[in-house]
Amino acid sequence: MDRRLSRRKLAIAVGALVLAVPGLSACGFNYATDREYTPGNGTNDLTGVVDVLNAVIVAEEDGSGTFVASLSNNAPDEAIAFEALSFGSNSTIEVAPFDPVEVPAMGLVNLGDGQGIKVSGEIVKGDFIELSLAFSNGETADMDVPIVAAEWEYTGLDNGTGVPAPAATPSVSEPAE
Q1: Are 147 and 126 contacting, i.e. CB atoms less than 8 angstroms apart?
Q2: Are 26 and 43 found together in one domain?
Q3: Whole-prediction pTM value?
Q4: What angle do CA 49, 101, 146 make, to 5 degrees?
Q5: Residue 143 near residue 50, CB atoms below 8 Å
Q6: Residue 72 near residue 108 (C-beta atoms within 8 A)
Q7: What are the C-alpha distances in Å from 7 to residues 16, 20, 21, 97?
Q8: Are residues 29 and 92 in the same domain?
Q9: Does 173 score more than 80 pLDDT?
Q10: What pLDDT is stored for residue 22 in this prediction?
Q11: Residues 99 and 127 in one domain
Q12: Residue 128 near residue 41 (C-beta atoms within 8 A)
């Protein structure tokens, strides 16, 4: 009788182990390998026709930096231009004037290749800052991007051209009478 009892206990233990293995392993739903992941410090925005990839502001010192990102145009037959960079109506960040950056159809432009946009103002390494990119097709990409130190893979990328012009003075709306 003791043998049957120990065999039954062994069978139950083995059965429980077989049932528990999928839950204890990496198996199941929502696999980590099925989720999108791009290793990098920057922020990605994949909501529009133009994907903004690894967007950061690279700063050699606090107070100024260069906005860099990769822009990938997913339109099969239309070039789209990156036309404006803004930091919101209440921001004091200054943006250097720049010519629109054309992203060819099904092409990619890396702003880190000397096309970065110089910014100055409340730029503090380690912070995140809200900004918006405007494109010629009318879409915008609103994102929070990190301000990273110009070291390691970001060495030499705080090289934007132009001198930032003062941001517009925030306006205060007066109540309607």
Answers
A1: yes
A2: no
A3: 0.74
A4: 75
A5: no
A6: yes
A7: 14, 20, 21, 80
A8: no
A9: no
A10: 64
A11: yes
A12: no
